[in-house]
Design brief:
Elements (H helix, E strand, L loop, with lengths): L1 H19 L7 H26 L5
Length: about 60
């Protein structure tokens, strides 16, 4: 259950990142920081999904 809660939190943070920034107003550095954070969250989400599929791995 904890993994699902974390996954929901990650999705919420991801949505916040996308809604919070106007794409036209971003500098390249800001855009890279947002993309980096997005991919960090995506990796976390995939790790949680993998853990759900393989409960013996912690």
């Amino acid at each position: 259950m904890r993994n699902r809660e974390n996954e929901l939190q990650i999705v919420t943070i991801d949505e916040d990142i996308r809604l919070e920034h106007d794409e036209d107003a971003l500098t390249n550095r800001e855009r890279l920081e947002i993309y980096n954070r997005y991919y960090e969250l995506e990796i976390d989400r995939l790790n949680l999904e993998y853990q759900d599929l393989n409960p013996t791995i912690h």
